[in-house]
Design a protein that fits this description.
By secondary structure, this protein is of the alpha/beta class. The chain has a single domain, classed as Alpha-Beta Barrel (TIM Barrel), CATH 3.20.20. About 30% of the residues lie in helices and about 20% in strands. The protein has six helices and ten strands. Strands 8-7-6-5-4-1-9-10 form an eight-stranded mixed sheet, covered by helices on one side. Strand 4, helix 3 and strand 5 form a beta-alpha-beta unit. Helix 2 packs parallel to helix 3 and helix 3 runs parallel beside helix 4. The longest helix is centred in the middle third of the chain and has 13 residues. It is globular. The relative contact order is 0.19.
Protein backbone atom coordinates (compact mmCIF):
# COMPACT_ATOMS: atom_id res chain seq x y z
CA UNK A 1 0.00 0.00 0.00
CA UNK A 2 2.98 2.38 0.37
CA UNK A 3 2.85 3.35 -3.29
CA UNK A 4 -0.68 4.73 -2.92
CA UNK A 5 -1.57 8.29 -1.98
CA UNK A 6 -1.53 9.07 1.75
CA UNK A 7 -4.41 11.45 2.49
CA UNK A 8 -3.81 13.31 5.78
CA UNK A 9 -5.53 16.70 5.89
CA UNK A 10 -4.65 19.11 8.69
CA UNK A 11 -8.17 20.53 8.74
CA UNK A 12 -11.53 19.17 7.60
CA UNK A 13 -14.41 21.49 6.76
CA UNK A 14 -17.97 20.18 6.69
CA UNK A 15 -19.64 22.45 4.13
CA UNK A 16 -23.14 21.00 4.44
CA UNK A 17 -25.02 18.16 6.07
CA UNK A 18 -27.12 17.71 2.91
CA UNK A 19 -26.51 14.87 0.47
CA UNK A 20 -28.47 13.79 -2.61
CA UNK A 21 -27.65 10.11 -2.23
CA UNK A 22 -28.37 7.49 0.42
CA UNK A 23 -25.35 5.18 0.28
CA UNK A 24 -25.62 1.95 2.25
CA UNK A 25 -23.09 1.98 5.06
CA UNK A 26 -22.57 5.75 5.16
CA UNK A 27 -21.73 6.84 8.71
CA UNK A 28 -22.61 10.53 8.23
CA UNK A 29 -25.93 11.77 9.70
CA UNK A 30 -26.88 13.45 6.43
CA UNK A 31 -30.13 15.11 5.44
CA UNK A 32 -30.92 13.38 2.15
CA UNK A 33 -32.58 15.73 -0.32
CA UNK A 34 -32.64 16.29 -4.09
CA UNK A 35 -34.31 19.70 -3.69
CA UNK A 36 -32.73 22.63 -5.52
CA UNK A 37 -29.70 23.72 -3.53
CA UNK A 38 -30.51 27.44 -3.55
CA UNK A 39 -34.07 26.90 -2.32
CA UNK A 40 -32.86 24.54 0.39
CA UNK A 41 -30.18 27.04 1.36
CA UNK A 42 -32.85 29.73 1.78
CA UNK A 43 -35.31 27.57 3.72
CA UNK A 44 -32.80 25.62 5.86
CA UNK A 45 -29.66 27.76 6.31
CA UNK A 46 -28.66 25.70 9.35
CA UNK A 47 -27.75 22.85 6.98
CA UNK A 48 -25.01 24.87 5.28
CA UNK A 49 -21.75 26.55 6.26
CA UNK A 50 -21.97 30.25 5.43
CA UNK A 51 -18.86 31.75 3.76
CA UNK A 52 -18.77 34.60 6.31
CA UNK A 53 -19.00 32.12 9.18
CA UNK A 54 -16.21 30.01 7.69
CA UNK A 55 -13.92 33.01 7.19
CA UNK A 56 -14.44 34.23 10.76
CA UNK A 57 -13.95 30.77 12.27
CA UNK A 58 -10.71 30.25 10.32
CA UNK A 59 -9.42 33.65 11.42
CA UNK A 60 -10.13 32.80 15.04
CA UNK A 61 -8.57 29.35 14.71
CA UNK A 62 -5.46 30.09 12.65
CA UNK A 63 -4.91 33.83 12.82
CA UNK A 64 -2.36 34.69 10.14
CA UNK A 65 -1.08 31.11 9.94
CA UNK A 66 -1.77 28.59 7.19
CA UNK A 67 -2.19 24.82 7.08
CA UNK A 68 -0.47 22.55 4.59
CA UNK A 69 -3.68 20.76 3.63
CA UNK A 70 -7.41 21.25 4.14
CA UNK A 71 -10.36 19.29 2.77
CA UNK A 72 -13.93 20.37 2.14
CA UNK A 73 -16.54 17.66 2.52
CA UNK A 74 -20.23 17.11 3.34
CA UNK A 75 -22.76 15.65 3.22
CA UNK A 76 -22.10 16.27 -0.44
CA UNK A 77 -20.35 19.63 -0.92
CA UNK A 78 -21.66 20.12 -4.46
CA UNK A 79 -25.11 20.63 -2.88
CA UNK A 80 -23.84 23.93 -1.42
CA UNK A 81 -24.83 26.80 -3.77
CA UNK A 82 -21.87 28.89 -2.56
CA UNK A 83 -19.24 26.18 -2.72
CA UNK A 84 -17.09 28.28 -5.03
CA UNK A 85 -16.81 30.93 -2.29
CA UNK A 86 -15.86 28.32 0.31
CA UNK A 87 -13.13 26.97 -1.98
CA UNK A 88 -11.78 30.49 -2.48
CA UNK A 89 -11.61 31.06 1.28
CA UNK A 90 -9.93 27.69 1.84
CA UNK A 91 -7.31 28.49 -0.81
CA UNK A 92 -6.27 31.57 1.18
CA UNK A 93 -5.16 29.58 4.24
CA UNK A 94 -4.22 26.18 2.76
CA UNK A 95 -1.21 25.03 0.78
CA UNK A 96 -3.45 22.40 -0.85
CA UNK A 97 -7.26 22.21 -0.87
CA UNK A 98 -9.15 18.96 -1.46
CA UNK A 99 -12.80 18.65 -2.41
CA UNK A 100 -14.27 15.34 -1.20
CA UNK A 101 -17.23 14.30 -3.34
CA UNK A 102 -19.19 11.48 -4.95
CA UNK A 103 -18.50 13.29 -8.22
CA UNK A 104 -21.80 12.91 -10.09
CA UNK A 105 -22.02 16.66 -10.63
CA UNK A 106 -18.77 16.61 -12.67
CA UNK A 107 -20.67 15.18 -15.65
CA UNK A 108 -23.54 17.66 -15.42
CA UNK A 109 -23.80 20.69 -17.71
CA UNK A 110 -25.50 22.97 -15.17
CA UNK A 111 -24.21 26.45 -14.42
CA UNK A 112 -23.37 25.48 -10.83
CA UNK A 113 -21.40 22.39 -11.86
CA UNK A 114 -19.38 24.42 -14.35
CA UNK A 115 -18.83 27.06 -11.68
CA UNK A 116 -17.43 24.48 -9.25
CA UNK A 117 -15.10 23.09 -11.91
CA UNK A 118 -13.87 26.57 -12.81
CA UNK A 119 -13.28 27.32 -9.13
CA UNK A 120 -11.32 24.08 -8.73
CA UNK A 121 -9.18 25.00 -11.72
CA UNK A 122 -8.66 28.60 -10.57
CA UNK A 123 -7.60 27.64 -7.03
CA UNK A 124 -5.72 24.40 -7.91
CA UNK A 125 -8.18 22.35 -5.86
CA UNK A 126 -7.67 18.58 -5.90
CA UNK A 127 -10.97 16.73 -6.45
CA UNK A 128 -11.16 13.59 -4.30
CA UNK A 129 -13.76 11.20 -5.76
CA UNK A 130 -15.23 8.29 -3.79
CA UNK A 131 -15.18 5.05 -5.77
CA UNK A 132 -16.13 1.87 -3.93
CA UNK A 133 -19.00 -0.51 -3.31
CA UNK A 134 -20.64 1.85 -0.82
CA UNK A 135 -20.89 4.75 -3.29
CA UNK A 136 -21.83 2.55 -6.26
CA UNK A 137 -20.18 4.62 -8.97
CA UNK A 138 -19.80 2.65 -12.24
CA UNK A 139 -16.25 2.53 -13.62
CA UNK A 140 -17.33 3.99 -16.96
CA UNK A 141 -18.76 7.05 -15.18
CA UNK A 142 -15.56 7.45 -13.19
CA UNK A 143 -13.61 7.31 -16.45
CA UNK A 144 -15.79 10.08 -17.90
CA UNK A 145 -15.31 12.15 -14.74
CA UNK A 146 -11.53 11.84 -14.73
CA UNK A 147 -11.42 12.61 -18.46
CA UNK A 148 -13.36 15.83 -17.92
CA UNK A 149 -11.19 16.87 -14.99
CA UNK A 150 -8.04 16.17 -16.98
CA UNK A 151 -9.37 18.21 -19.91
CA UNK A 152 -9.63 21.20 -17.56
CA UNK A 153 -6.23 20.56 -15.92
CA UNK A 154 -7.89 19.81 -12.60
CA UNK A 155 -5.99 17.41 -10.38
CA UNK A 156 -7.82 14.50 -8.77
CA UNK A 157 -7.37 11.50 -6.49
CA UNK A 158 -9.65 8.48 -6.14
CA UNK A 159 -10.65 7.34 -2.65
CA UNK A 160 -11.48 3.65 -2.25
CA UNK A 161 -13.05 2.78 1.11
CA UNK A 162 -13.18 -0.94 1.82
CA UNK A 163 -13.02 -3.19 4.87
CA UNK A 164 -10.13 -5.35 3.73
CA UNK A 165 -7.12 -5.05 1.46
CA UNK A 166 -8.37 -7.75 -0.89
CA UNK A 167 -11.63 -5.84 -1.41
CA UNK A 168 -9.64 -2.68 -2.03
CA UNK A 169 -7.51 -4.42 -4.65
CA UNK A 170 -10.62 -5.76 -6.38
CA UNK A 171 -12.09 -2.26 -6.62
CA UNK A 172 -8.68 -0.85 -7.56
CA UNK A 173 -8.56 -3.14 -10.61
CA UNK A 174 -11.70 -1.45 -11.96
CA UNK A 175 -9.89 1.88 -12.39
CA UNK A 176 -6.55 0.64 -13.71
CA UNK A 177 -6.01 3.74 -15.90
CA UNK A 178 -5.33 5.78 -12.75
CA UNK A 179 -1.77 5.70 -11.34
CA UNK A 180 -1.27 4.32 -7.82
CA UNK A 181 -0.07 7.76 -6.73
CA UNK A 182 -3.61 9.08 -7.26
CA UNK A 183 -5.35 6.26 -5.36
CA UNK A 184 -6.26 6.58 -1.66
CA UNK A 185 -6.97 3.41 0.35
CA UNK A 186 -9.28 4.28 3.24
CA UNK A 187 -10.20 1.57 5.75
CA UNK A 188 -13.93 1.57 6.38
CA UNK A 189 -14.72 2.84 9.86
CA UNK A 190 -16.63 0.46 12.12
CA UNK A 191 -16.85 2.72 15.17
CA UNK A 192 -16.14 6.30 16.14
CA UNK A 193 -12.58 5.62 17.26
CA UNK A 194 -11.64 4.71 13.65
CA UNK A 195 -12.55 8.12 12.25
CA UNK A 196 -9.92 10.60 11.09
CA UNK A 197 -8.66 13.13 13.65
CA UNK A 198 -7.01 16.09 11.86
CA UNK A 199 -4.43 18.15 13.75
CA UNK A 200 -6.58 21.30 13.57
CA UNK A 201 -9.88 19.49 13.99
CA UNK A 202 -13.10 19.57 11.97
CA UNK A 203 -15.15 22.69 11.28
CA UNK A 204 -18.89 22.04 11.52
CA UNK A 205 -21.56 23.69 9.39
CA UNK A 206 -22.20 26.18 12.21
CA UNK A 207 -18.55 27.25 12.35
CA UNK A 208 -17.71 25.43 15.58
CA UNK A 209 -14.92 22.87 15.78
CA UNK A 210 -14.95 19.21 16.71
CA UNK A 211 -12.27 16.60 17.18
CA UNK A 212 -13.40 14.43 14.29
CA UNK A 213 -16.06 14.22 11.58
CA UNK A 214 -19.77 14.29 12.33
CA UNK A 215 -20.90 10.68 12.57
CA UNK A 216 -23.62 8.26 13.63
CA UNK A 217 -20.94 5.83 14.81
CA UNK A 218 -20.25 5.32 18.49
CA UNK A 219 -16.89 4.48 19.98
CA UNK A 220 -16.43 0.97 21.33
CA UNK A 221 -16.83 0.72 25.08
CA UNK A 222 -13.68 -0.33 26.98
CA UNK A 223 -13.07 -1.38 30.54
CA UNK A 224 -10.45 0.17 32.86
CA UNK A 225 -7.71 -1.86 31.14
CA UNK A 226 -8.64 -0.48 27.72
CA UNK A 227 -10.10 -3.81 26.61
CA UNK A 228 -13.10 -3.66 24.29
CA UNK A 229 -16.24 -4.75 26.11
Amino acid sequence: MKSHFDFKPDLLIETTSVCDRMCAGCYAPNVVSAEDGMRLYASNPNLFLRPTVMAKAIQNRLGSNKVACSALRGGEPSRHPELDQLLEIAACFSGVVYLETHGRWILQSSEQSLGILQSCSRHSVVVKISFDRMHGLPAEQLRAMTDRLASMDIRYVIAITEMKEELFLKTRSLCDWIPDGQIVFQKKSLDGSDLIVPDFGVMRVDGTFGKTVNSKLKEKATDSRGVVA
